[in-house]
Amino acid sequence: MHDVRAKAVHVSDVPNVYSYPRDPDDEPYIDLAISTASRYLVTRDKDLLDLMADETFCRQFPTLTILDPVSLLRELGVQRKPGSQPTEEP
Q: Model-level pTM?
């Protein structure tokens, strides 16, 4: 955690950029990702993941990719250790 804290950036007063009526509780995560020009939003939340199938959202925020942890590791080309089992979602 110490290494994470050393590289973390605290963001306060995140503007409301995106309205998500399907799950308003997810809006702060979307807003934070958009406001900080994040490349990835990593989650297991189906409502958030489904945004990648929304053409309007993808056109509006083309540089943001929402994906699950396993997909992020694949995207980044992280190799599993020999003998370890993949951790696929059920």
A: 0.77
